[in-house]
Write a structure and sequence with these properties.
Shape: elongated
CATH topology of the largest domain: Rossmann fold
Strand order of the largest sheet: 5-4-3-6-7-9-8
CATH superfamily of the largest domain: Vaccinia Virus protein VP39
Number of helices: 11
Number of domains: 2
Distance between the termini: 66 Å
Structural class: alpha/beta
Radius of gyration: 20 Å
Order of helices and strands: HHHHHEEHEHEHEEHHEHEE
Helix content: 25-40%
Protein backbone atom coordinates (compact mmCIF):
# COMPACT_ATOMS: atom_id res chain seq x y z
CA UNK A 1 0.00 0.00 0.00
CA UNK A 2 1.23 3.48 -0.88
CA UNK A 3 1.00 6.46 1.43
CA UNK A 4 -1.45 8.09 -0.97
CA UNK A 5 -3.83 5.13 -0.59
CA UNK A 6 -4.27 5.92 3.10
CA UNK A 7 -5.50 9.46 2.61
CA UNK A 8 -8.91 8.88 1.00
CA UNK A 9 -10.35 6.59 3.72
CA UNK A 10 -8.88 8.85 6.44
CA UNK A 11 -10.49 11.97 4.97
CA UNK A 12 -13.85 10.21 4.78
CA UNK A 13 -13.62 9.14 8.42
CA UNK A 14 -12.78 12.65 9.57
CA UNK A 15 -15.53 14.16 7.43
CA UNK A 16 -18.10 11.80 8.93
CA UNK A 17 -16.85 12.73 12.40
CA UNK A 18 -17.54 16.41 11.74
CA UNK A 19 -13.90 17.56 11.69
CA UNK A 20 -13.70 21.05 10.22
CA UNK A 21 -10.69 20.54 7.93
CA UNK A 22 -10.55 16.80 7.25
CA UNK A 23 -8.16 16.85 4.30
CA UNK A 24 -5.61 19.10 5.95
CA UNK A 25 -5.73 17.16 9.20
CA UNK A 26 -5.44 13.83 7.40
CA UNK A 27 -2.31 15.01 5.59
CA UNK A 28 -0.75 16.50 8.73
CA UNK A 29 -1.31 13.28 10.65
CA UNK A 30 0.02 11.14 7.81
CA UNK A 31 3.23 13.14 7.81
CA UNK A 32 3.43 12.66 11.57
CA UNK A 33 2.87 8.90 11.33
CA UNK A 34 5.58 8.65 8.68
CA UNK A 35 8.01 10.78 10.67
CA UNK A 36 8.13 13.49 8.02
CA UNK A 37 7.96 17.25 8.05
CA UNK A 38 4.51 18.24 6.68
CA UNK A 39 6.10 19.98 3.71
CA UNK A 40 7.72 16.74 2.56
CA UNK A 41 4.59 14.61 2.52
CA UNK A 42 3.83 15.10 -1.18
CA UNK A 43 7.14 13.54 -2.11
CA UNK A 44 6.34 10.47 0.01
CA UNK A 45 2.80 9.85 -1.26
CA UNK A 46 3.86 7.46 -4.09
CA UNK A 47 6.06 5.44 -1.73
CA UNK A 48 5.05 2.17 -0.02
CA UNK A 49 4.09 2.30 3.64
CA UNK A 50 5.12 -0.27 6.23
CA UNK A 51 2.43 -2.07 8.26
CA UNK A 52 3.68 -0.33 11.41
CA UNK A 53 3.35 3.11 9.84
CA UNK A 54 -0.12 2.28 8.51
CA UNK A 55 -1.19 1.14 11.98
CA UNK A 56 0.25 4.28 13.55
CA UNK A 57 -1.67 6.40 11.07
CA UNK A 58 -4.90 4.54 11.74
CA UNK A 59 -4.44 5.20 15.46
CA UNK A 60 -3.92 8.91 14.76
CA UNK A 61 -7.07 9.11 12.64
CA UNK A 62 -9.07 7.30 15.32
CA UNK A 63 -8.00 9.87 17.88
CA UNK A 64 -8.78 12.78 15.53
CA UNK A 65 -12.19 11.31 14.69
CA UNK A 66 -12.88 11.43 18.43
CA UNK A 67 -12.16 15.18 18.06
CA UNK A 68 -8.84 15.16 19.87
CA UNK A 69 -6.83 18.15 18.59
CA UNK A 70 -4.14 17.48 16.01
CA UNK A 71 -1.63 19.22 18.27
CA UNK A 72 -2.31 16.76 21.09
CA UNK A 73 -1.77 13.85 18.71
CA UNK A 74 1.46 15.23 17.27
CA UNK A 75 2.54 16.78 20.58
CA UNK A 76 3.40 20.17 19.13
CA UNK A 77 2.03 23.43 17.79
CA UNK A 78 3.67 26.09 15.64
CA UNK A 79 3.63 29.63 17.06
CA UNK A 80 5.45 32.66 15.65
CA UNK A 81 7.68 30.40 13.60
CA UNK A 82 8.72 28.14 16.48
CA UNK A 83 7.51 24.71 17.56
CA UNK A 84 6.14 24.38 21.07
CA UNK A 85 5.41 21.12 22.83
CA UNK A 86 1.78 20.93 23.94
CA UNK A 87 -0.35 18.54 25.95
CA UNK A 88 -3.75 18.33 27.58
CA UNK A 89 -2.27 20.30 30.51
CA UNK A 90 -1.92 23.56 28.58
CA UNK A 91 -3.87 25.80 26.26
CA UNK A 92 -2.84 25.44 22.63
CA UNK A 93 -1.03 28.52 21.30
CA UNK A 94 -3.40 30.40 18.99
CA UNK A 95 -2.53 32.46 15.92
CA UNK A 96 -4.51 35.37 17.40
CA UNK A 97 -2.02 35.61 20.26
CA UNK A 98 0.67 36.61 17.78
CA UNK A 99 -0.98 40.06 17.80
CA UNK A 100 0.05 40.41 21.43
CA UNK A 101 3.60 39.44 20.45
CA UNK A 102 3.71 42.14 17.77
CA UNK A 103 2.41 44.76 20.20
CA UNK A 104 4.94 43.76 22.85
CA UNK A 105 7.85 43.94 20.42
CA UNK A 106 6.87 47.43 19.27
CA UNK A 107 8.82 48.84 22.23
CA UNK A 108 12.02 47.57 23.88
CA UNK A 109 11.98 45.88 27.28
CA UNK A 110 14.54 44.21 29.51
CA UNK A 111 12.38 42.41 32.06
CA UNK A 112 9.17 40.50 31.38
CA UNK A 113 6.51 38.84 33.51
CA UNK A 114 4.12 36.43 31.78
CA UNK A 115 1.07 35.54 33.85
CA UNK A 116 -0.60 32.17 33.26
CA UNK A 117 2.33 31.18 31.06
CA UNK A 118 0.98 27.75 29.98
CA UNK A 119 3.25 26.47 27.20
CA UNK A 120 5.44 29.53 27.68
CA UNK A 121 4.77 30.55 24.08
CA UNK A 122 4.36 34.26 24.88
CA UNK A 123 7.27 34.47 27.30
CA UNK A 124 9.70 32.42 25.24
CA UNK A 125 8.81 34.04 21.92
CA UNK A 126 9.37 37.50 23.34
CA UNK A 127 12.65 36.49 24.96
CA UNK A 128 13.83 34.95 21.70
CA UNK A 129 12.90 38.07 19.74
CA UNK A 130 14.24 40.65 22.21
CA UNK A 131 18.02 40.32 22.73
CA UNK A 132 19.13 40.88 26.31
CA UNK A 133 15.68 40.48 27.83
CA UNK A 134 14.98 38.11 30.72
CA UNK A 135 11.63 36.91 31.98
CA UNK A 136 9.55 35.07 34.54
CA UNK A 137 6.59 32.83 33.75
CA UNK A 138 3.95 32.30 36.44
CA UNK A 139 1.31 29.57 36.38
CA UNK A 140 -0.89 27.93 38.97
CA UNK A 141 -0.51 24.52 37.29
CA UNK A 142 2.66 22.49 38.02
CA UNK A 143 2.07 20.47 34.85
CA UNK A 144 1.92 23.65 32.77
CA UNK A 145 5.15 24.92 34.33
CA UNK A 146 6.87 21.64 33.48
CA UNK A 147 5.66 22.00 29.89
CA UNK A 148 6.92 25.59 29.68
CA UNK A 149 10.30 24.69 31.16
CA UNK A 150 10.69 21.88 28.62
CA UNK A 151 9.94 24.33 25.81
CA UNK A 152 12.50 26.76 27.20
CA UNK A 153 15.14 24.05 27.18
CA UNK A 154 14.24 22.95 23.65
CA UNK A 155 14.52 26.52 22.40
CA UNK A 156 17.80 27.12 24.27
CA UNK A 157 16.17 29.85 26.35
CA UNK A 158 16.51 28.37 29.83
CA UNK A 159 19.23 30.88 30.68
CA UNK A 160 16.84 33.76 29.95
CA UNK A 161 13.62 32.34 31.42
CA UNK A 162 12.59 31.27 34.89
CA UNK A 163 9.32 29.81 36.08
CA UNK A 164 7.42 29.83 39.35
CA UNK A 165 4.14 28.51 40.67
CA UNK A 166 1.66 31.16 41.72
CA UNK A 167 -1.81 32.65 41.47
CA UNK A 168 -1.24 35.83 39.47
CA UNK A 169 0.86 38.19 41.66
CA UNK A 170 0.68 36.29 44.96
CA UNK A 171 4.02 36.49 46.76
CA UNK A 172 5.68 38.45 43.96
CA UNK A 173 7.60 41.59 44.93
CA UNK A 174 9.63 42.32 41.79
CA UNK A 175 8.90 44.94 39.14
CA UNK A 176 9.07 44.50 35.36
CA UNK A 177 9.16 46.58 32.18
CA UNK A 178 6.43 44.48 30.59
CA UNK A 179 3.66 42.24 31.89
CA UNK A 180 1.79 39.96 29.49
CA UNK A 181 -1.18 37.67 29.96
CA UNK A 182 -3.56 35.55 27.95
CA UNK A 183 -5.86 34.68 30.85
CA UNK A 184 -9.07 32.62 30.86
CA UNK A 185 -11.66 34.97 29.36
CA UNK A 186 -14.67 32.78 28.61
CA UNK A 187 -17.74 33.09 30.79
CA UNK A 188 -19.00 29.84 32.30
CA UNK A 189 -22.11 30.04 30.12
CA UNK A 190 -19.98 30.03 26.95
CA UNK A 191 -18.28 26.71 27.63
CA UNK A 192 -21.11 24.54 26.33
CA UNK A 193 -20.90 26.16 22.90
CA UNK A 194 -17.22 25.43 22.34
CA UNK A 195 -16.01 22.95 19.73
CA UNK A 196 -15.32 19.49 21.18
CA UNK A 197 -11.60 19.92 20.49
CA UNK A 198 -11.55 22.78 23.00
CA UNK A 199 -14.30 21.86 25.44
CA UNK A 200 -13.26 18.23 25.93
CA UNK A 201 -9.49 18.34 25.56
CA UNK A 202 -8.12 21.67 26.76
CA UNK A 203 -7.80 22.58 30.47
CA UNK A 204 -10.91 24.42 31.63
CA UNK A 205 -8.81 26.40 34.11
CA UNK A 206 -7.09 28.06 31.14
CA UNK A 207 -10.37 28.77 29.33
CA UNK A 208 -12.81 30.17 31.90
CA UNK A 209 -12.94 31.81 35.31
CA UNK A 210 -16.18 29.85 35.90
CA UNK A 211 -17.89 33.22 36.27
CA UNK A 212 -18.45 36.17 33.95
CA UNK A 213 -15.12 35.85 32.10
CA UNK A 214 -13.66 39.01 33.66
CA UNK A 215 -12.35 37.60 36.95
CA UNK A 216 -8.76 37.26 35.76
CA UNK A 217 -8.75 40.81 34.38
CA UNK A 218 -9.93 42.20 37.71
CA UNK A 219 -7.03 40.52 39.48
CA UNK A 220 -4.42 41.38 36.85
CA UNK A 221 -5.33 45.04 36.41
CA UNK A 222 -5.52 45.54 40.18
CA UNK A 223 -2.10 44.00 40.82
CA UNK A 224 -0.15 45.12 37.78
CA UNK A 225 0.60 48.79 38.66
CA UNK A 226 2.77 47.95 41.66
CA UNK A 227 4.69 45.36 39.63
CA UNK A 228 5.51 47.63 36.70
CA UNK A 229 8.52 49.89 36.40
CA UNK A 230 7.81 53.56 35.56
CA UNK A 231 6.76 53.66 31.94
CA UNK A 232 5.98 49.94 31.97
CA UNK A 233 3.28 48.25 29.93
CA UNK A 234 0.59 45.64 30.56
CA UNK A 235 -0.62 43.66 27.52
CA UNK A 236 -3.60 41.33 27.88
CA UNK A 237 -5.32 39.24 25.24
CA UNK A 238 -9.09 39.49 25.57
CA UNK A 239 -12.17 37.89 24.15
CA UNK A 240 -14.14 39.65 21.41
CA UNK A 241 -16.52 42.13 22.97
CA UNK A 242 -14.58 42.50 26.24
CA UNK A 243 -12.67 45.61 25.24
CA UNK A 244 -14.81 48.21 27.01
CA UNK A 245 -15.01 46.25 30.27
CA UNK A 246 -11.28 45.48 30.43
CA UNK A 247 -10.34 49.05 29.53
CA UNK A 248 -12.57 50.28 32.35
CA UNK A 249 -10.86 47.93 34.79
CA UNK A 250 -7.44 49.23 33.73
CA UNK A 251 -8.48 52.86 34.14
CA UNK A 252 -9.97 52.10 37.56
CA UNK A 253 -6.68 50.48 38.60
CA UNK A 254 -4.84 53.74 37.89
CA UNK A 255 -3.48 53.26 34.38
CA UNK A 256 -3.55 56.67 32.66
CA UNK A 257 -3.10 55.33 29.13
CA UNK A 258 -5.23 52.43 27.90
CA UNK A 259 -5.91 51.33 24.33
CA UNK A 260 -7.34 48.44 22.32
CA UNK A 261 -5.67 46.56 19.48
CA UNK A 262 -8.12 44.94 17.08
CA UNK A 263 -7.57 41.87 14.93
CA UNK A 264 -7.90 41.70 11.15
CA UNK A 265 -11.65 41.11 11.48
CA UNK A 266 -12.04 44.27 13.54
CA UNK A 267 -12.62 42.45 16.84
CA UNK A 268 -11.14 43.56 20.14
CA UNK A 269 -8.09 41.33 20.74
CA UNK A 270 -5.49 43.00 23.01
CA UNK A 271 -5.76 45.67 25.69
CA UNK A 272 -2.60 47.67 26.34
CA UNK A 273 -2.28 49.70 29.54
CA UNK A 274 0.72 51.92 30.23
CA UNK A 275 1.78 53.16 33.64
CA UNK A 276 2.85 56.76 34.12
Amino acid sequence: MRAADLLGPAIRRLTEAGVAEPAGDARRLLAHALGLAPGRLTLALPEPVSPDSAAAYDACITRRAAREPVSHITGERLFYGRRFAVSADVLDPRPETEMLIEAALAQPFETLLDLGTGTGCILLTLLAEMPGARGLGIDISPAALANAAANAAELNLSIKAEFAAGDWFDGLTRQFDLITANPPYLAAAEMAGLAPEVREFEPHLALTDFGDGLGAYRAITAGAPEHLMPGGRLLMEIGPGQGHEVMSLAYAAGFPHVSIIRDLDGRDRVVMAEIG
